[in-house]
Amino acid sequence: MPGENLSRDEARERAELLSVDGYEVVLDLRSAVDEAEPADGPRTFRSVTTVRFRAAAPGAATFADLIAPSVNSVTLNGHELDPAAVFDGARIALDGLAAENVLVVDANCAFSRTGEGMHRFVDPEDGEVYLYTQYEPADARRVYANFEQPDLKAPYRFEVTAPEGWQVWSNGAEESREGDTRRFAETAPISTYITCVVAGPYHYVTDTYTRGDLTIPLGAMCRKGLAKHFDADDVFLVTKQGFDLFHEIFDYPYPFGKYDQAFVPEYNLGAMENPGMVTFREEYIFRGKVTQASYERRANVILHEMAHMWFGDLVTMKWWDDLWLKESFADFMGSFGLVEATRFDQAWVTFANSRKAWAYRADQLPSTHPITADIRDLEDAKLNFDGITYAKGAAVLKQLVAYVGRDAFLEGARRYFKANAYGNTTLDDLLSVLAEVSGRDMAEWSRAWLQTAGVNALTPVVTCDAGGRVTELAVLQDGDELRPHRVAVGLYRLDADGALVRYARAEADVAGARTVVGELAGQERPALVLVNDDDLTYCKIRFDADSLATLRSHLGSVADPLTRALCWSALWNLTRDALMPARDFVSLVLAHAGRETDVGVLQMLHSQALSAVTHYADPQWREQGGRVLAACALQELRFAEPGSEHQLTWARFFAAGAATEGDFQLLLGLLEGSARIDGLEVDQELRWDFLLPLAAHGAVDESVLAAELTRDDTASGKRHQVRCLAARPSAAVKDQAWAAVVESDALSNALVEATISGMQQPSQRGLLAGFVAPYFAVLERVWADRSIQIGIDVVRGLYPSLQGSQETLDATDAWLAEHADVAPALRRLVVESRDDLARALRAQACDTAAG
User: Fold this and answer.
1) Cis before residue 137, ω within 30 degrees of 0?
2) 235: exposed, middle or buried (C-beta count within 10 Å: 0-12, 13-18, 19+)?
3) Average pLDDT, stretch 567-578?
4) What is the pLDDT of residues 810-829, one digit of tens each?
């Protein structure tokens, strides 16, 4: 990755010098289907870019961005430049600029196998080739020459020549076609990272959205092999519901013409908000039975990306410091839109349970940062697509809505769009309009919430009189930065039917270390006090002793789904913070998870319970903990309503935690048809879920996995098979997996991920122990030689966290001490992994003491 970075200072200087009038990008993609692979380098395509731009200081020098194997020619203002002299592999030096300039670059760009730039995928099912682009934060330069920074917006015209029989899409609508060459309409001014091309023999479905005089052509596409699974009608339903809502609350018509949505293979992200041409990971097309939680997640992503058409595409941050200006808003609007406009009216439960868990983890790492981050360069930017920028930012916006009011918040958004359409903004631009509409002092709110890092814990302290009445209820706040919180405090009691229900609630502004909530004085003694009831603010919830005792006995009796989700979240945070033994959390799951009605919450509890046993439990109790979880899962699986999504969820949990010979025999029987659980349909995806633990415990061999691939000879099947192969309990297998990921770049990004996740099996700590020293030995080489996405996957995925010992922590500290000058992004990844391990060791000590 050396030479490919771009600093904030360089971007600022270039933005002060240049303004870009437009791009014309001509791509010839016919080489994508050449049968022979190149013998001496990557497969390439021709890219010819014409950029028209102005310079504020004639005679000055700058550079254009391009990452390409070779450049055929560079012409600036009619003068041919020597490519060998001006192109260094990542930048094109441009000297002696005129007031008005025309740059033409003819290059051979490389197809990608890492999901960055122009990704090329060959479908093993039918041999068809599919292409798509993915650029954020700065990979458009892998496809065409440009000025790769968000504040140099410009209109784009794309012309693409594709293999015969292919379809091609870009941000603009197709304007003309001659033979296999398509020309697309000029876009509105947009940033480089949201331009897009999708090409191949995709299955394509169309529809139309209308609202008054506005008509938006809709399209949705996927690989031909997935067409039989593609529920495009539901995708279009959510899309139309989103457009209805956003047009109503934003009062600004969708500005980018058509709206295509492509579900593409081997995608690194959930989705990307390219205007007019949104791309999604194809796993959102479900090959088997899934729960409503999966449909909700997909709908959330659809609305998240749609919100970006305004927050991010129409109005874009100047630099990646203000990445939150788009991602936090889109994350908030995803859940907001689900509740307001779709059938998923419990989306705030999912947000409290799932999205905020991501934020809490990120905000307690040594690398935590303010929501408005200090992004020095592109490597920093890549790592800041994290739980703080997305989920914490969204939670803080939810707090902002409580602070200024919903009407003022939405009116601020409307004014923000109209004042800054097609432009670039910073934090101050948003704060000024919010202050204008709300009458609130946004500077102090911003300082506390957007410009400081860390999460507060709020703890209730209840004092009662002899008659059992509350005399005082105070909320204690701790944390490095004591923030203003608009919170609701709820009081709960057991009703006559045994349900734990709320009987009193008060909203209060918590500020400083101690705040008294006077409105609750005089209420009867509560069985449970819930600070941050209704999840208005961003904090860790703590409990008083009586409330914790109530939850141990009655958590499953909490009537309200959001309240239960908040309680589960708080208990998980106690476990992660080594304030509750892991075995206690597991006991709570055993006692109460079977009564959880929200399947998304249930899925999260399953994941957390497995994590508690794997990472946080006393190693001497770990095996026993795994067995009791598997036994619980099997019992709940047998009790679940036949054919229900809860039954499916318990089946997957049972497979993930299978621990005994009897468990493995049942899984084999379900696969072979010799065993049956009423209502449980073992479809292809569930078959792979069952095969992974069987492979990891040596209950099936390579021949069984090969036979399964024959049964499911698809791209998805291949990923599953690769994961299962790497999971087998053999030293030779682990050596092969390591070599495939670390010593070779032959695997695509999707197969790198599958190999790493298969290799790292909790039941195989002994087999993996030998990779601790090699891991630290290869870090710098991997970071230098591989793309940043693959580098991140390897550094995070192969960290020896399963060797949960002080020796591993010491080895990490030794590497960090000896490599103080490594790339900051690499160091951050290792520091984060080290912190997860240190947290696990503290939790293990807590659990050991409890044993």
Assistant:
1) yes
2) buried
3) 98
4) 999 999 999 999 999 999 99
Residue 434: both structure tokens together: 């919010």
Q: Residue 471 above 70 pLDDT? A: yes
**pLDDT tens digits for 113-137?**
999 999 999 999 999 999 999 999 9
Tokens 């819930």 appear where? 530
With a cut of 70, say whether residue 1 has pLDDT above it: no
Q: Which of 296, 305, 327, 708 is catalytic?
A: 305
Alpha carbon distance 212, 214 (integer Å): 5
CA distances from 81 to 74, 76, 300, 754 (A): 5, 7, 49, 45
CA 708/CA 688 separation, integer angstroms? 8
Question: pLDDT by residue (tens digit) across 223-263?
Answer: 999 999 999 999 999 999 999 999 999 999 999 999 999 99
Residues near 309 by Cβ (< 8 Å), separated by ≥ 6? 246, 254, 255, 256, 273, 275
- Contact criterion met (CB below 8 Å) for 335 and 344: no
Beta strands in 340-484 (DSSP E): 424-425, 457-464, 470-478
Would you tell me the crossing angle of helices 232-250 and 292-308 to the nearest 10 degrees?
40
Residues 6+ apart with CB under 8 A from 187: 155, 156, 157, 171, 172, 195, 256, 275, 276
pLDDT in tens, 763-779: 999 999 999 999 999 99
Cα 473 off chain centre by: 39
pLDDT in tens, 156-170: 999 999 999 999 999
Tokens of 625: 């903990």
Q: How far apart are CA 573 and CA 459, in angstroms?
A: 13
pTM of the model: 0.95
Q: Measured between alpha carbons, how far is 407 from 404 in angstroms, rounded to an integer? A: 8
- Give the whole-angstrom CA distance, residue 819 versus residue 242: 49
Is 305 an active-site residue? yes
Instruction: Compute how many other C-beta atoms are within 10 angstroms of the C-beta atom of residue 85.
Output: 9
Q: Which residues contact 525 (CB under 8 A, 6 or more apart)?
A: 462, 464, 468, 469, 470
Q: Please name the amino acid found at residue 13.
A: E
Residue 339 has φ and ψ, to the nearest 5°, of: -70, -40
Of 144, 260, 157, 264, nearest in space to 201 by CA: 264
